[in-house]
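RECORD TYPE: inverse folding
INPUT: structure tokens
STRUCTURE:
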């Protein structure tokens, strides 16, 4: 049996100069060879690692028999963003981590196989969702990112009429305004988004208490999925200077106006250690920055970025400075000067994570642009317009299996700490099921 893992070709790290997708798709023979390594395990641990419960061994088995459309249909029956998730899922910590066959040693490239068959079906226009004529509802979904899109999809399958309220000109959330095209081309995201949104009425963002009360009155249930995109402040002097920007704003602007940015000759510092920091740094390199340095207050071990994200940033030339935290930002002669404090780590807390602690020792570092890619939270101004929502001490709304403390309002995605696209899809799916169950039980009578 062939044991080495086959992955598709990728652009060599030194040649990744623009926003072209880094990985190409499998060729049919490659997909076939990779699929043949799957053991069709009796208990399929990979499925337990997938938040949307895709029947992984069965779709891989269909690839083995050449039934690519059947494989794609199976994936889409569990996850309407199959092609998107095939690209962006951190499979190394989900399905592929659970693919533990000792015989194989190396997990099956499940994500690449999923992407391959979904792309094949999309390109051949063989994806359509069996939405019945809507007879029930109406339901409002607020926020058209992956959580909202998934909830719309599963509500429509259940026969509900749904209206989406979206603040941006185009729905898609971070699929179009966050994750850069070298990992997720807009064309791919748009194909799946438009299939889901067929026949869905789209209204403007819900920004005021009056808007929220109107929605509560007009709709039988509401699913809130506005994400968690409110950046926290660093709380250090000089943070508001020109040249200091948030990763969320930066990535959104770049996704809209790629041509307008040119970092030629500039040193860019990125603050943080998660997905946003990795993407902001890789985008800065593609905008011709002369050096890109990620500053993180802990070490590689504690970094929230997934291993593949870190590895790819490293390979592309991003530098990392561990155990540092800015305590002041000054501007001199058009450049930023960061006073960085060296940090150390405390003993692991109850969660096993080691918190950083200042040493008092500082040094100065010059850069031209500082991108803050630190934590983001739900927007409190959005949450306070909805009556009856109670929040936890960190500002996340309390929920019981996607139902909020206002029984008519359901929640999902990053608003309830999702953190990944596939978790947002799973939340939308569960949200739709819970709304249906609640309405069948009498709803808000
Ligand atoms: C840079 C970056 C890279 C990432 N990379 C990955 C990755 O590789 N893999 C992965 O799995 N996850 C990744 N993530 C995380 C993933 O994108 C999120 O977990 C996911 O998008 C959350 O989905 P959501 O629907 O909850 O929110 P969002 O995608 O944030 O969508 C929220 C939507 O709500 C809308 N909205 C907000 N307020 C209102 C309002 N008042 N009225 C109406 N609409 C409103 C917004 O405009 C937006 O369209 C990344 C995140 C970032 C920032
Ligand atoms: S765990 Fe791995 S080998 Fe087993 S069915 Fe899943 S993908 Fe195939």
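DESIGNED SEQUENCE:
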């Amino acid at each position: 049996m062939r044991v080495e893992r086959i992955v598709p070709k990728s652009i060599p790290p030194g040649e990744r100069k623009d926003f072209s997708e880094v990985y190409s798709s499998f060729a049919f023979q490659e997909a076939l060879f990779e699929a043949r390594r799957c053991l069709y395990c009796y208990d399929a641990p990979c499925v337990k690692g997938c938040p949307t419960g895709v029947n992984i061994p069965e779709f891989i088995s269909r690839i083995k028999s050449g039934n690519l459309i059947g494989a794609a249909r199976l994936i889409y029956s569990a996850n309407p963003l199959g092609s998107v998730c095939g690209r962006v899922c951190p499979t190394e910590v989900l399905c592929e981590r659970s693919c533990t066959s000792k015989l194989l040693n190396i997990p099956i490239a499940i994500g690449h196989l999923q992407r391959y068959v979904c792309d094949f079906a999309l390109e051949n226009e063989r994806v359509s969702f069996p939405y019945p004529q809507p007879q029930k509802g109406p339901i409002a979904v607020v926020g058209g990112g992956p959580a909202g899109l998934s909830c719309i999809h599963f509500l429509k399958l259940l026969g509900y009429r749904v209206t989406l309220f979206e603040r941006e000109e185009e729905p898609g959330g971070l699929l179009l305004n966050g994750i850069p095209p070298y990992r997720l081309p807009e064309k791919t995201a748009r194909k799946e988004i438009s299939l889901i949104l067929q026949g869905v009425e789209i209204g403007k963002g819900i920004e005021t208490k009056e808007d929220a009360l109107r929605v509560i009155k007009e709709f039988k249930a509401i699913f809130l999925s506005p994400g968690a995109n409110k950046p926290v402040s660093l709380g250090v002097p000089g943070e508001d200077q020109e040249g200091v920007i948030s990763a969320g704003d930066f990535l959104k602007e770049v996704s809209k106006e790629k041509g307008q940015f040119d970092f030629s000759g500039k040193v860019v510092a990125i603050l943080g250690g998660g997905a946003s920091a990795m993407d902001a740094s890789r985008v800065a390199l593609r905008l011709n920055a002369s050096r890109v340095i990620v500053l993180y207050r802990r070490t590689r071990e504690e970094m929230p970025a997934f291993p593949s994200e870190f590895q790819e940033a490293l390979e592309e030339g991003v530098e990392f400075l561990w155990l540092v935290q800015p305590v002041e930002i000054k501007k001199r002669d058009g450049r930023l000067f960061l006073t960085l404090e060296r940090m150390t780590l405390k003993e692991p807390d109850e969660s096993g994570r080691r918190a950083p602690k200042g040493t008092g020792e500082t040094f100065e570092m010059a850069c031209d642009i500082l991108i803050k890619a630190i934590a983001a939270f739900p927007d409190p101004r959005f949450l306070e317009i909805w009556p009856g929502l109670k929040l936890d001490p960190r500002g996340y709304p309390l929920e019981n299996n996607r139902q909020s403390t206002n029984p008519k309002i359901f929640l999902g995605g990053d608003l309830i700490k999702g953190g990944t696209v596939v978790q947002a899809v799973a939340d939308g799916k569960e949200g739709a099921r819970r709304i249906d169950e609640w309405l069948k039980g009498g709803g808000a009578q």
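NOTES: The longest strand covers residues 356-367.
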